[in-house]
Design brief:
The complex is a heterodimer.
Chain A: H1 3-6, E1 10-21, E2 24-35, E3 39-43, H2 50-58, E4 64-72, E5 75-76, H3 82-87, E6 90-93, E7 100-104, H4 105-119, H5 127-140, E8 151-152, H6 158-172, E9 176-180, H7 188-200, E10 207-212, E11 225-230, E12 233-238, H8 240-249, H9 252-259, E13 267-268
Parallel strand pairs in A: 3-10, 3-11, 6-9, 9-10, 12-13
Antiparallel strand pairs in A: 1-2, 1-4, 4-5, 7-8, 11-12
Helix pairs in contact in A: 6-7
Chain B: H1 3-8, H2 20-36, H3 52-55, E1 60-61, H4 70-77, E2 84-88, E3 91-92, E4 107-110, H5 111-117, H6 119-122, H7 136-143, E5 149-153, E6 163-170, E7 176-186, E8 191-201, E9 206-216, E10 221-228, E11 234-244, E12 249-256, E13 261-270, E14 276-285, E15 290-299, E16 305-314, E17 319-328, E18 336-345, E19 351-360, E20 366-374, H8 378-385, H9 391-408, H10 413-425, H11 430-434
Parallel strand pairs in B: 1-7, 2-6, 5-7, 6-8, 7-9, 8-10, 9-11, 10-12, 11-13, 12-14, 13-15, 14-16, 15-17, 16-18, 17-19, 18-20
Antiparallel strand pairs in B: 2-3, 4-5
Helix pairs in contact in B: 2-7, 8-9, 9-10
Classes of the chains: A alpha/beta, B alpha/beta.
């Protein structure tokens, strides 16, 4: 398909997804479609299953998938290893990026990019060319190049770790980026940098899912669609105004309504 | 004594014309080994290290004339980067050795020749440190004393380049045993780096029995390295005995990668005020291999410092043993001692028995120990894979990240690179992993 044709085609299609951790069902039949060119925000109270959803889509094994389907460009995500999902174009921005002393940041970035290029049949980038490329990207996330010679996320502050996630995303240029609470613990400056990174990837052939508890990030990255999760499902979907409404009213009423069974079917809120 | 133990004492090429003190070392060694026999698991220090596998093999004394040339040497020990002495089945091979590059007045060469030409330099030290508490295996080594390396640094001599000692155990169709011996005498204020590489050629079982004695005079400094990278048919025993005088510094770094069974014993005595010891070790094992590191550090005088850091990576059904004992003897106040043993277990069947031990008989001391036994971090593994790294490479990266702290402590750059390559070579996709360093 040409880029033009890809527009408005679903990149991510999730149907009736169920997952549990131990005896607890965390995802209870979740459906979500994200079309090419769109930015979606998934909001919801703590414990609604947002991070589990992000992890399950990227192949994290802490939750066990018990039902439903998830497709990336029509391919069965759930049958793929985490690395194959990355190669297929999925990127998960971690809420808590892991510190790995002993694995160099720059090396890791290049290894990740080359692993993906190689599997797509593209030529690998050598260390010298990559350094030039990475320097440009670092500038875009306002990251000090000195950080690159450190261990992966080693001794990084919370904000620096999140910038590093955005840098990785900028280098890997994923087809679908799922950013899990990328805004948590960020000051306004860092938030702007992160938002710019997300905006820079906005394109008719890519899409982004922002998982967030707060509306704040959405002041900087304007989503096309806002979803609300409760009790493991998407219960409300709408435009940007939905986020503002949630900000005003809080999440308590959602929980309340969900308990009363008000969201047996997902509700579409029209602007 | 069993017939197996008797066979270990066979010596088809006994050296002729030894000075009386050297002949006495042999006699005493034979006596001690005959009395003790090989260690059994009834001994505390050998509790987890059965030697039954060794006893099942009929070893012959290795032939020093066994074919071993420059290509084999380079393949097993890497290219020569500085002064190097090469020993085949325990005896110096002059044609492969070149000690050029030593400081003025220093000697590095054949122990046998030094016993002939300058016995007075050896007599005060040879066999002294390794006798007594050394145990049966160093006694077996003493019983077969013939050759080895002798290094003597005169007062204030500073060696610019590392001296490399390569001990090659070369077997033919038959299993062989090979003793090797090193005596390092560093006079006051002298400094040197000495690297022992223990390699083996041939696929028959070999038993290598290495003893290193180190006498450091006041203010002297020695960086000592041992690299053991033998085939899985080898049984390797290495014992290091060091005596460290006032304000002297002894650093010993061991990398144990190969062999069916690899046992290291390090005994350091800090016998002058302000003396310092650092013991660093990296070990890796897989399959059914066993690697055992034992050490005893005695603080005999005040203001001594000792540091011990050992790290292990264990896969398959391998087993590791760490026994680290620090003794702060009466009067050794202001001692500062710390030991640490961390292990990465890559399979459920791999085991580690770790026994750090502090015995303190003095007041006003600072002592501690720590250690960990863990698996690869699942979150870190997922993080790497989520960026497209294949599972095997992600694992190798994390293993190398764990081990590299020990590699980074190797000071000579060429040796550090070589050890890094040897470690990576034991990991899937290792060549790739090395770029991370």
């Amino acid at each position: 398909m040409s880029p033009k044709e890809q527009e408005n085609q679903p990149i991510l299609a999730v149907e009736g997804l169920r997952a549990r951790i131990g005896d607890r069902e965390i995802l209870t039949g979740l459906s979500l479609t994200v079309n090419a060119g769109q930015v979606h925000a998934i909001m919801g109270p703590n414990g609604s299953g947002k991070s589990t959803l992000a992890g399950v889509l990227a192949g994290r094994e802490t939750a066990e998938v018990t039902g439903g389907t998830a497709r990336l460009d029509g391919r069965d995500l759930l049958a793929m290893s985490p690395e194959d999902r990355a190669i297929a174009g999925l990127f998960l921005g971690f809420q808590y990026p892991v510190e790995i002393p002993g694995v160099g940041n720059l090396y890791f970035l290049r290894t990740a990019l080359n692993a993906q290029r190689k599997s797509r049949g593209e030529e690998e980038i050598d260390a010298v060319d990559f350094l030039e490329f990475a320097k440009e990207k670092m500038k875009s996330v306002e990251m000090d190049p000195a950080f690159m010679s450190r261990g992966l996320n080693e001794g990084f502050s919370g904000g620096e770790k999140k910038r590093n996630e955005v840098l990785q995303m900028a280098v890997l240029e994923p087809r679908l980026a799922i950013l899990d609470e990328i805004d948590s613990g960020l000051d306004i400056d860092a938030l702007r940098v992160v938002a710019r990174g997300v905006e820079a990837l906005r394109s008719p052939v890519r899409s982004t899912v922002l998982v967030t508890h707060y509306q704040r990030l959405l002041e900087y990255v304007v989503p096309d669609v806002v979803h609300v999760m409760a009790a493991g499902r998407i219960v409300l979907s709408g435009g940007r105004e939905l986020a503002l409404e949630l900000e005003k009213k809080g999440y308590a009423w959602i929980d309340e309504e969900a308990r009363r069974g008000a969201f047996a079917e997902p509700v579409q809120v029209s602007p | 004594m069993s017939s197996f133990e008797e066979s270990l004492l066979e010596d088809p090429r006994p050296p002729a014309g030894l000075p009386a003190f050297a002949a006495e070392i042999r006699r005493k060694g034979r006596e001690v080994f005959t009395n003790l026999g090989l260690p059994t698991t009834r001994l505390e220090e050998w509790r987890f290290t059965p030697l039954a596998g060794v006893a099942g093999v009929r070893f012959q004394a290795g032939d020093p004339g066994a074919p071993f040339g420059a290509p084999e040497l380079e393949r097993l020990a890497g290219p020569r980067v500085g002064p190097r002495l090469v020993f085949v089945n325990g005896r110096l091979r002059a044609d492969l050795s070149d000690a050029a590059g030593l400081p003025a007045g220093a000697f590095a060469g054949s122990l046998a020749r030094a016993l002939e030409e300058r016995p007075a330099l050896l007599e005060p030290h040879l066999g002294r440190l390794a006798s007594g508490s050394g145990g049966a295996i160093p006694a077996l080594n003493a019983a077969l004393l013939a050759d080895g390396a002798f290094v003597h640094l005169p007062d204030g001599a500073k060696a610019a380049e590392p001296l490399e000692l390569v001990f090659a155990t070369v077997s033919g169709p038959a299993a062989i045993s090979s003793p090797s011996r090193v005596l390092l005498v560093a006079r006051p204020q002298s400094e040197a780096t000495v690297v022992e590489k223990h390699v083996a050629l041939g696929s028959s079982p070999v038993l290598s029995n290495a003893v290193t004695e180190v006498a450091l005079g006041a203010g002297a400094g020695l960086d000592h390295y041992q690299v053991q990278d033998q085939p899985p048919s080898a049984y390797h025993f290495a014992a290091v005995f060091a005596e460290v005088e006032r304000d002297a510094r002894f650093h010993t770094h061991s990398t144990a990668l190969g062999a069916a069974l690899s046992r290291s014993d390090v005994r350091v005595r800090l016998c002058g005020e302000g003396a310092e010891a650092k013991l660093v070790g990296l070990y890796m094992a897989d399959g059914k291999r066993l690697v055992d590191n034992h050490s005893v550090v005695d603080h005999a005088k005040p203001r001594g410092t000792s540091r011990e850091v050992f790290k292990g990576v264990l896969d398959g059904e391998s087993r590791a043993v760490f026994g680290g004992r620090v003794r702060v003897l009466e009067g050794a106040m202001k001692t500062d001692a710390y030991q640490m043993n961390s292990n990465l277990l890559l399979s459920r069947e791999a085991t580690i028995d770790t026994m750090p031990q502090l015995e303190i008989y003095a007041d006003d001391v600072k002592c501690g120990h720590g250690g960990t036994v863990g698996q690869l971090d699942a979150d870190a593994l997922f993080y790497l894979r989520s960026r497209g790294l294949p599972l095997e490479r992600a694992k190798s990266l994390l293993i190398y990240a764990f081990a590299r702290e020990m590699v980074d402590l190797v000071r000579p750059a060429a040796l550090r690179d070589q050890i890094g390559r040897l470690v990576a070579a034991r990991l899937p996709d290792g060549a790739r992993v090395l770029e991370a360093a």
